[in-house]
Specification:
The structure is a homodimer of 508-residue chains.
Chain A (H helix, E strand, L loop, with lengths): L12 H22 L6 E6 L3 H14 L5 E5 L5 H4 L5 H4 L8 E5 L4 H8 L5 H20 L3 E8 L2 H13 L9 H8 L1 H15 L6 E5 L3 H22 L3 H10 L25 H24 L4 E7 L5 H9 L7 E5 L5 H4 L5 H4 L8 E5 L8 H4 L5 H20 L3 E8 L2 H13 L9 H8 L1 H15 L6 E5 L3 H20 L3 H8 L1
Parallel strand pairs in A: 1-3, 1-4, 2-3, 4-5, 6-8, 6-9, 7-8, 9-10
Helix pairs in contact in A: 1-10, 2-10, 5-6, 5-9, 6-9, 12-21, 13-21
């Protein structure tokens, strides 16, 4: 795989200096055009040779306008990063639209090092690469231009360079112990590098293997590729290539036939519960939840609770019964309203990644990422190919949470149209509830069957063994609240005494 | 101080339920009006009684629209939080304009607990309170409506309540060991509570002491005060009260007389350095900086480097000489461009707090918070009273960094108008540098003397013993770069072997 990058390509100083002024000017012009485009550029720099990587970063820093550029060289994880799923630290540094981020030591490096030094087996390594592909695919499908440069240098050249540097009285510091250890395992490194490239080299996120020996060749090649990629993308426009790709890349989407029983039809909405029983049970369940939540805190088991449901289904009331029981110091409610500008200029999952709880904490989402396949689908805010691929993106997202050991509990609060009408009317008569009823709510009611189809698809496509949906009959508020508390307690309790196999997978 | 909050005030269930619907409706209306106003609301809930605090939070959660509300109950610090100055965790959770944040266990609690249990002496406690006042004042002067409620309950009532709760078979969990320990130290707690209130009770950020015994009285009183405060503020408009306050609150501002020598006039701009000497020195200094930066990393000594200077003074080039030497994994360059919408909807310091480095890391700001007293002052983007109070805000901000043990190194790169003109013309002839010259740069040149006065004021007012300005003659780029590296190395080295007194103050 690297043979073509060991040909000894060079560019003379003369040619280099002739090409440079025009190239740098063009690069800046492209970057300037990018600032008003609606996609970000992510540049990944990988390879065994840290000196070359550093020089490439310095060069990009010099050639590009730093106001639109961030450089992220990932080193040791902070505790907050270690407490979240593996990709959280990358999500928090992703560039917004119009900006360029250069990333090194990012999502590939950790797995490569683990592979080379035998800390993970081949199966785990392959799973990491699969996960990386899904991440890159998710970002690229959303518009991000991902440019991946693998800087290659042969073993003999790397050895030669180290020797030369080490002899230099003041440049010795450029060679670390870790670099030398890696050089000793060069053949292992090469094996895993090839495997990484092979498993993540897709048409939408291709690798460029760059012969890194000659600095002038290396820098000119990368700059030219960067320039032509950005220019081409600016010309072709943001939607065209993605539309084309989605059709080839996404599985065919099964439209739910009309007038057919949905998963919601199986729910018995008639169950009610007396006020006395309710209050007795409520205190008991809240007490239990309080104890379990502290136990989870000490075991560093985080919990993500998702609430979706019809308008007026009682999400707010159910959530308050949870927050009354769980200490506010270890819990957080995220009410999903209109996204901020920063949120809008990222992938739609970015704003949810932001709030992933620290170890042992509970985050409750009042509405969630499922908006993509519910309101955005029905109201046409998301294009077909956008919400259709969202099921896979969401499943992947939740799988990452679960693999990290986070418990994901999802509730759909279900009422029927009659009960909703009753509650709407009731709300109109209570002064402080009137604001909860808007024209939009009445309009949504008219689209009941469209929403029903969307809910049905959502439940079918995103109820996974690791994060199943809990459908809650909610015509009786009392019944629904107890049901939510009970389910949450049960699932939390079960997650605190994990069977052997679950333990294993959550550590990987 | 608390006598007026032990009068046994009560509200009957009947009166409560009569008042409630109208109050809740009005509250929601006020919150709705707030969403398009240009100030945030910060609600601080303090007091010994955790049960009351929890109930107040639950009630606000129920009465307000949760989409515009966040609740932050601060518990144990995360490592990332512990690695930054004490207020960093609060800055990261401050509400943006139009939103309400309820904070409990926030900036007061830690100091109170430390005071009560003798972990800090009275002097330190008072210093903490002074710092809190400055924080609240900074936010309030910028428009934030800060509402502080101290929930008071007498010792006998608290004892009674605990006994009752502990007898209850399922509500026992509401009383923690920590609560009981605090009750035992009630008189100590009261002493520090009074002191805290006294030292932070200002006209712009006044305390409300709330008799907390009766839940109905407590909730109605807080809700009514909240409602009237927000309504009044919405009516009076955002600027009026702040303008009035600044005049009383800020020290008289000394205008620099025209045509007078400034601090910049003392600089000798004629020094140059040969290319050979430069390159020899550069490598040596970069090597030294590399070693020092790793040493600082291992000692967890963070560094904040600030670059300001005339257009074309060579900030970018000087910064690159630093980033070539410091490993990208432990450093970050923040180029200050136009703020994002999220940044705009916070205090102007918020965007800089965001990037405060983790322990042992280096953050380089390419332009900085000093924009407030430079470009914003000269161009009139900030009102007089805004940039005039900024000196104090900035000194306070940097003092917090230094107290936390962060080294702050500030550079002003100075060139004269002739040299600037030469560089502007040169840039116009180099294709990839032409973009660096805009009409704005030429306009700024015309305001040289206004900028000079602003720089002079800035240096005089913000050159402190803990964060002095380094004025760098930069007509010779080579000289300036070496000077920057040398200064940085010296100050970093000095901070790594601190004299006894500095060690002591950085630990407080």
């Amino acid at each position: 795989m690297f043979e073509a990058a060991e040909l000894g390509r060079k560019i003379s100083k003369e040619d280099y200096e002739k090409a440079l002024p025009r190239l740098r000017k063009k690069l800046l012009e492209a970057q300037f055009a990018l600032t008003s485009a609606d996609f970000p550029v992510i540049i990944i720099i990988e390879g065994v040779d840290n000196v070359s990587k550093g020089e490439v970063i310095n060069t990009l820093n010099e050639w590009l306008d730093t106001r639109g550029l961030s450089v992220h060289a990932f080193g040791a994880k902070s505790d907050e990063e270690a407490e979240r799923p593996r990709f959280w630290r990358y999500w928090r540094t992703l560039p917004s639209k119009g900006r360029i981020a250069v990333m090194t030591g990012a999502w590939y490096s950790g797995s490569l090092i683990q592979g080379v030094f035998g800390q993970i087996d081949d199966t785990s390594f392959d799973r990491h690469m699969k996960r990386i592909h899904l991440l890159e695919n998710t970002l690229a499908m959303n518009g991000a231009l991902i440019l991946k440069y693998w800087l290659h240098i042969s073993k003999s050249e790397q050895t030669k360079r180290f020797k030369k540097l080490e002899k230099h009285p003041v440049q010795r510091w450029q060679v670390s112990k870790h670099d030398k250890k890696l050089l000793e395992s060069y053949s292992q490194y090469k094996k895993f590098a090839e495997r990484a490239i092979r498993l993540t080299d897709y048409a939408i996120t291709p690798w460029q293997i760059i012969e890194a020996e000659n600095a002038r060749y290396r820098h000119l090649t990368i700059a030219q590729h960067l320039l032509s990629s950005i220019s081409q993308r600016l010309k072709s426009g943001p939607v065209q290539p993605l539309k084309a790709l989605t059709q080839a890349d996404i599985e065919p989407f099964l439209e739910a036939p009309d007038n057919v029983l949905t998963v919601l039809d199986g729910l018995d909405l008639s169950t009610d519960i007396s006020k006395t029983t309710y209050q007795k049970e409520l205190v008991k369940l809240q007490q239990k939840l309080n104890q379990l939540s502290w136990k989870a805190y000490h075991q560093k088991r985080s919990v993500v609770v998702v609430f979706e449901g019809w308008d007026a289904a009682g999400k707010g009331g159910a959530i308050r019964r949870i927050t009354q029981a769980v200490d506010a110091r270890i819990s957080q409610v995220i009410s999903i309203a209109a996204p901020t500008d920063e949120e809008k200029s990222h992938h739609y999952l970015w704003r949810f990644w932001r709030h992933i709880p620290r170890a042992g904490h509970v985050t409750i989402y009042d509405r969630s990422w499922y908006g993509r396949v519910l309101v955005e689908r029905v109201e046409g805010f998301a294009k077909d190919f956008e919400w259709q691929r969202a099921y896979r993106e969401i499943n992947d997202f939740e799988e990452q949470l679960c693999e990290h050991g986070i418990l994901v509990v999802k509730f759909w609060l279900h009422i029927d149209p009659d009960e909703q009408l009753r509650r709407f009317k009731e709300r109109e008569h209570i002064p402080y509830k009137r604001h909860k009823i808007t024209d939009e709510d009445w309009r949504n009611r008219d689209k009941w069957s469209a929403y029903e189809a969307a809910v049905n698809d959502m439940v079918i496509r995103t109820s996974t063994d690791y994060a199943p949906w809990n459908l809650v009959p909610a015509n009786s508020k009392r019944y629904a609240r107890l049901c939510v508390l009970k389910t949450l307690c049960e699932q939390l309790e079960a997650s605190l005494t994990p069977p052997e196999d679950r333990k294993k997978s959550s550590n990987s």
